[in-house]
Inverse folding.
């Protein structure tokens, strides 16, 4: 089993199940041209987020970690008429690229990009959200999850990206900030009776990683 095989399998399914999409292709190209890090979700992962949000019937979505807006577009397209997505981004340059990409996809009226440290921005939000996607700095994931829970209601879905860390998440002695932050996240979830959660390991064009998928089941 090699990453080359994983990529080939991703492409096989994407060619059959994901229609050509000029807006998403343009967003990905704009991110590359702007020199943004190549850490956005893969197309099949974007489609997964889209489907999960639609299955939930989400009308309000909160994304923590915008980057260039690629996942934002996938999620915003899942909203019904009158729906709203708020996305939080710490880097002004990333936010500028994201706003242009979101506008290019015809979603500027649906999406609000808020710039600043998420832990500073989150206290300014009000109301509840039906769906959360957390894909920002991994050291703060446990804090982001707790904020998502505060802004959720029964039935809300919380998805957290990059939790397998090439398998390194099982290393209790790791000093890597991404690993230790992820382990704090999982400990937080495991101790939280208001959520039911699992982790789905993934392989593909983004390597070996995985998602937390959780649902709020208690108030």
């Amino acid at each position: 089993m090699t990453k080359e095989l994983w990529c080939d399998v991703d492409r096989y399914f994407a060619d059959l199940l994901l229609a050509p999409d000029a807006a998403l292709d343009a967003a990905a190209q704009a991110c590359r041209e702007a020199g943004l890090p190549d850490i956005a979700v893969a197309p099949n992962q974007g489609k997964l987020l889209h489907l999960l949000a639609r299955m939930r019937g989400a009308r309000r979505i909160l994304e923590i970690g915008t980057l260039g807006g690629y996942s934002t577009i996938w999620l915003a397209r899942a909203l019904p008429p009158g729906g709203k997505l708020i996305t939080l981004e710490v880097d002004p340059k990333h936010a500028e690229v994201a706003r242009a990409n979101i506008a290019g996809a015809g979603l500027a009226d649906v999406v609000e990009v808020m710039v600043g440290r998420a832990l500073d921005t989150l206290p300014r939000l009000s109301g509840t959200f039906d769906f959360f996607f957390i894909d920002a700095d991994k050291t703060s994931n446990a804090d982001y999850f707790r904020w998502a829970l505060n802004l959720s209601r029964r039935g809300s879905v919380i998805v957290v990206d990059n939790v397998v860390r090439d398998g390194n998440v099982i290393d209790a002695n790791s000093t890597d900030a991404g690993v230790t932050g992820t382990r704090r996240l999982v400990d937080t979830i495991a101790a939280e009776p208001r959520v039911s959660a699992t982790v789905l390991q993934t392989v593909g064009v983004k390597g070996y990683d995985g998602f937390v998928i959780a649902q709020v089941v208690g108030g």
Notes: The chain has a mean pLDDT of 97. The two ends are 43 Å apart (CA to CA).
